[in-house]
Design brief:
Number of strands: 10
Strand order of the largest sheet: 2-3-1-4-5-6
Largest sheet: 6 strands, mixed
Structural class: alpha/beta
Strand content: 5-15%
């Protein structure tokens, strides 16, 4: 049975609830939908959102409902305790509101999913989704107070002690400040607050202890005052709830010294008031503070009052003092023994049928346990050896006491230094043989049998012989021979390493050349002279390569190295480096110009048609260009028009109307302008241009505004290509408008 509720998850507030659910909906589901999608896809998109949100709300609400205990499923003690602390009606109402909100969320989702199945557009589906989520959020906001209340209840439930209603329990009760908390501190691991004033304990405290290898729990209850049950506060009602519902041994504490502030008569009256709650329970009257007043010290009247509540065999009187710790363990052991005896008797009675035979699980257990008894009714007493019966009791302060291993340990250096002699107590072994070395056995044979006892002597003789041989130079020649052999071995090993490294390098070169071009791409170009010399040295004729290179190259511009034409005879002679002759002096500027031309001249390769490189014919080149243009086509960055965009046709009509209002209305008074509308109308109807011109010249006058709009509509339809008539009226109209704008001349 569950006895603690520390694992209840925290209850979020209504705002946190909305944030958790809506953010999870936003993260888990798609967020983009367009008007161009099919309507079935749009409906499914918003239906999924509504359903998922409702499921998240329902899941959270159900987790809250499952986390809190159901009052009808828990022990009556916990049920009444929760009623005392939190008011069970408020608790049920809060959980009921959560359950109602869960059902409302599910019904809202069902209704709006039915409506979304018939949505006609993206806008309509979106508005239905917003309405559904809005109604769910409104319901969640109305749960503000229940959620806050449930979170406070959760925090308080987590601080309650874990009390098992069915285990072995000692329940301590009585007036305030009579020593209840001091007693539970003395017998268990509990640490309640102990102060010299009343009502120090304001809630139930639980302590645990072990007795006879069994776990007991002791419960310290708040103090109780003697007044009607309806007038008791929440602190006192916790004690009443524990006394009424827990199957335990009741220990009613009394202060005979009356230092608690209440006389003995009042304490007896309180016992009689709550005595109906002690039915079918083991009850003890515990007199505390016997270091001050004992029951024997009471006056006859008070003693008679105390004896009036005692009943032999039902209510016993126990005495203790928490200050001096007198009788604390004796009282605890006596109560535990009585409690165990009663529980065992109840279990045995529950497993016995009408004929007195033990049945059920207890009967199966007793049948498996067999205790052997002497035959013939012989009684055999326990046998105790004489040496054991006559052994003197060990006294640490007796100098003649028997010596223990602990005494030997202290005399020989203490723990960690002294080693226990395990061989001194061997039986039937002589004292001189108890510490002999035990033989070591390997493979069934004694190792000592294979050890030469003269091994040490022989080792000394062998070492002396070795020293004699070394002194006589017996090992000198052997070392020289060994040295020459070692040098030869090292030399051959070095050759082997070099050969192995060469083989390894060749393998690397072969492996690297597999994936490389024979001529590396990064090879630098060489000049013709170096190539010619290399081919000639290799035995090849380089003449064809030289002729091909010279035919594809363009020679340098020839600059005359002779005398300039028309040179002056008085100019400086310059050596031309050929035939040992002199070149007549030239003009300085002409010489500089020739040097620049020589430096800028270079060989160029023949120009080729790059468009035809890599293709077979003109048709293939044209096809490649088309594919290139198609692949580099600019992407259309304009998004598709949605339901919120204005139609393109409506936008064009609007622009045309605005242009007419701004441009043609100021000219409405001029009779020669708006008659063009009739021209367009007649042209649309298929009349001849000459007839149109005659009608226009005869019907001079002002045309109404509707004609202007009609002409605009004609222009719009002509632009769309609905009425394919000649562009001549349009050209004439454009020219007339330009003339009017530039010269302000009438449109005739």
């Amino acid at each position: 049975m569950k006895t603690t509720w520390k694992d209840i998850a925290p209850v979020p507030t209504h705002t946190e609830f909305l944030d958790i659910v809506l953010s999870r909906t936003q993260r888990r589901l798609p967020t983009q939908i367009r008007a161009g999608f099919q309507i079935t896809r749009i409906r499914a998109f918003y239906i999924r959102k509504v359903k998922f949100t409702a499921e998240q709300f329902a899941e959270k609400f159900q987790a809250i409902l499952d986390g809190f205990p159901r009052l009808q499923d828990i022990h009556p003690f916990h049920k009444d305790l929760m009623n005392t602390l939190y008011d069970a009606d408020h608790f049920r109402i809060a959980l009921g509101q959560i359950a109602t909100a869960k059902h409302l969320m599910e019904s809202i989702a069902k209704d709006y999913v039915r409506l979304l199945k018939y949505g006609q557009s993206l806008f309509q589906c979106k508005q239905l989704k917003r309405a559904a989520l809005g109604r769910m959020a409104t319901i969640c906001r109305r749960l503000k107070d229940p959620l806050v209340y449930l979170d406070q209840v959760r925090q308080h439930l987590g601080r309650l002690p874990s009390i098992d209603p069915n285990t072995r329990t000692l329940l301590i009760c009585g007036y305030p400040n009579v020593g209840k908390s001091s007693f539970i501190r003395s017998i268990s691991r509990a640490d309640p607050d102990v102060q010299p004033y009343a009502f120090t304990t304001k809630s139930l405290f639980v302590g645990h202890f072990d007795y006879k290898m069994l776990r007991f729990q002791a419960i310290d209850t708040p103090g109780i005052l003697d007044h009607p049950l309806e007038e008791m506060n929440t602190i006192e009602m916790q004690s009443i709830t524990a006394i009424a519902h827990l199957r335990s041994a009741i220990m009613y504490f009394m202060d005979l010294s009356e230092q608690c502030g209440y006389p003995v008569a009042a304490q007896v009256a309180l016992f009689n008031s709550i005595r109906p709650l002690f039915s079918d329970k083991l009850v003890f009257i515990v007199c505390n503070k016997i270091d001050l007043v004992r029951p024997e010290d009471l006056d006859p009247e008070t003693a008679a009052t105390l004896q009036s509540i005692l009943k032999p065999g039902e209510i016993e009187l126990l005495q203790l003092s928490c200050t001096t710790e007198e009788g604390i363990m004796a009282v605890r052991n006596a109560v535990c023994d009585r409690l165990l005896a009663i529980r065992n008797a109840e279990k045995l009675a529950a497993g016995t049928n009408a004929s007195g035979e033990v049945t059920g699980r207890l009967g199966d257990l007793l049948r498996r346990i067999h205790v052997a008894q002497p035959m013939g009714g012989v009684t055999r007493e326990a046998f105790i050896p004489e040496t054991v019966a006559n052994r003197q009791k060990y006294d640490r302060n007796d100098p003649n006491r028997r010596r223990l291993e602990r005494d030997l340990e202290e005399e020989n250096g203490g723990a960690g230094v002294y080693s226990i002699d395990m061989k001194k107590n061997y039986i039937d072994i002589p004292e001189d043989q108890k510490h002999d070395i035990q033989p070591e056995v390997l493979n069934g044979r004694n190792v000592a049998d294979f050890i030469d006892p003269d091994i040490a002597k022989k080792l000394v003789e062998l070492e002396a012989e070795e020293e004699r041989l070394e002194a006589s130079g017996f090992y000198d020649d052997q070392e020289d021979d060994e040295g020459s052999d070692e040098d030869e071995i090292h030399r051959k090993a070095e050759l082997i390493r070099e050969k192995r490294q060469l083989i390894r390098n060749e393998a690397k070169m072969r492996k690297s050349l597999k994936n490389r071009a024979i001529i590396p791409r990064g090879a630098r170009p060489t000049n013709l002279n170096t190539l010619t010399e290399g081919l000639a040295a290799a035995g090849y004729d380089p003449s064809s390569i030289v002729n091909r290179a010279r035919s594809q190259s363009r020679g340098r511009s020839v600059v005359s190295r002779g005398r300039s034409v028309g040179g002056d005879a008085d100019m400086m002679d310059v050596d031309d480096g050929k035939n040992g002759g002199k070149v007549p002096p030239r003009d300085a500027s002409a010489a500089r110009k020739a040097m620049v031309e020589r430096s800028m001249s270079r060989a160029r390769s023949q120009s080729t048609n790059r468009r035809m490189d890599g293709v077979k014919n003109e048709m293939a080149a044209t096809k490649a260009e088309k594919l290139q243009k198609l692949s580099t086509r600019h992407r259309n960055r304009m998004a598709r028009a949605g339901e919120g965009d204005v139609s393109a046709y409506l936008m064009e009509i609007l622009l045309l109307v605005i242009s007419f209002l701004l441009t043609w209305l100021p000219l409405a008074s001029r009779h020669s302008f708006f008659d063009q509308a009739s021209c367009f109308r007649q042209a649309r109807n298929g009349q001849d241009s000459e007839e149109i011109e005659q009608e226009r010249s005869s019907n001079l006058g002002v045309v109404g505004l509707s004609e202007g709009f009609e002409m605009g509509w004609c222009l719009f339809e002509h632009k769309k290509g609905v009425f394919p008539f000649s562009d001549e009226p349009l050209n004439w109209l454009g020219g007339a408008c330009r003339d009017h704008r530039n010269t302000r001349t009438p449109l005739v």
